[in-house]
Amino acid sequence: MLDATAQAGLVGPGALPRGRSLDAFVTTAVWLGAGLIVAVFFWIVGDVFVHGVGGLSWSFLIDSPTHAGRGGGIGPIIVSTGLILTVCMAVSVPLGVGAGAWLAEFCPSTSLLGASVRRSLDMLAGVPSIVFGLFGNAFFCVYLGMGFSILSGGLTLACMVLPILIRSVEQGFGSVPGEHRRSAAALGMTRARTLAHVLLPAATPGLMAGLVLGIGRAMAETAALIFTSGYVDRMPQSLADSGRAMSVHIYDLSMNVAGGEPNAYTTALVLVASLLVINGATSAIGQRWLCGRSRG
Amino acid sequence: MSDKVLAWALRACGIVSGAVVLLIMFFLMQESLPALQRLGLARFFTDASWHPAADASQGRFNITAMVSGTLLTTAGAVLLAAPLGVVSAVFSHYYAPPRVARVHRRLIELLAGIPSVVYGFWGLVSLVPLLNALHPPGQSLLAGIVVLAIMILPTVALLSDAALANVPRSYLDGAAALGLTRWRTVWGVALPAARSGLFTGVLLATARAVGETMAVLMVCGNVVRLPGSVFDPVRTLTANIALEMAYAMGDHRSALFVSGLTLMGLVVLLVAAAGVFSRERVYA
Which of A18, A51, A181, B172 has a Cα-to-Cα distance from A232 of 20 to 30 A? Predict the structure, then answer.
């Protein structure tokens, strides 16, 4: 504990050695705290890797699960996850880019409508994932009659990733210098052409960042999918079929299937690894695209 | 494409995006209404226990145990994660050499990207057996607190990091000119200057902890009872929804929507409070 003199920063001659020893103590504590966090990270990631890597094989990635997931692979589950993500992104990216462009470029800063859209997006970002699940179940599955389907799951996730996407797009547009807009206007370009040929390419890094964050969030999601895209682990025949996402598979294997742990570990490894790969690849593509653009 | 059409199309995108949250609220309220009408708010706290049924008159709907489960896990997790998260940010700003700091930040970002179900799974297979050896049954309030704390730690750490980055350089120069030691500089200058940002981080982490489902569902044991100690199992509101939604009918289903509406209200309040403390727009 600090005494009053020390807290006020009044370091008298007599207090100096005490201040020094306190400083050394705190330095050790801070390094230990940081070390603890790093240790926990390696414990979790290492645990998943060590236990999961043994079950990893080509056939695990393409085979169907057998015995409720204890045996076989996760082929249909990967396909379902991909389809859910595709539906989610196909809906949320156009909507998000449009809304982001509107907020950043077309909506005057004094606009009441703009302010209320921003406010409601802030709220949307805070909605817990289980509440998205409840909503998706009530709206997409029951009210719109889609039932437990990949479509319901993907649309629910689309609602969830919208705020992240829009914010990144907005920031992307915000980082484009004003001269770009004025030069385009001076050249007599319409606003539509300016948006398509000047602003959108320049805002690509923001867009890419939003895409990565959105995909990451959607892939990691479990609670919102249990009651929307469901549990069925067969190969989906269409978007109207129920499909089990990887995250739901991990949950089901570890909680409801005795002896499902080894495959749950391997699925967790696949999930974490693909999140890392998507993260790395997309930012690399974004950078290359940007470089090519500025050179050409 | 003419400018007018484009402007209208983009505005439509904006309005649709903004309307999603209203749609969510509308459907939550619509589904909650039957339970609220037939049970009233009071019965959620005065009924003898939680034994829900499709018909309000036959079931018992006390959610006190679940509310306390949510509050206890959240409070515990925030108490653990808030100091550690701030320490992590202080470490990467004032103690670590630049290269170490960069690696540390990257690690925290990766930690933030790990799916909650993986945290829950790790808790279930690694942490719960350890706690079980210490004090059975292992699946407990304590397990929930620890896993939840690890989950929300990146939120606190990253937002504190951003807050400390905004401390004006001149403050630190001033502290250096006064000959303050490193810790005095951090404790007396940097942390007070970044106060509102740090507080925002903690509030958003709290919101995340309240709304988290999978991790607590997998490690908390899910017994509907007020816990006597940290080693007793608890069930949170979120876990309750996840566990019972699959077979809930009628008023039971509606009661689950009431708890969902409560959660949403709580989280929206926390996010709004965080928004007041920071001028930037904030995302959990």
Answer: A51
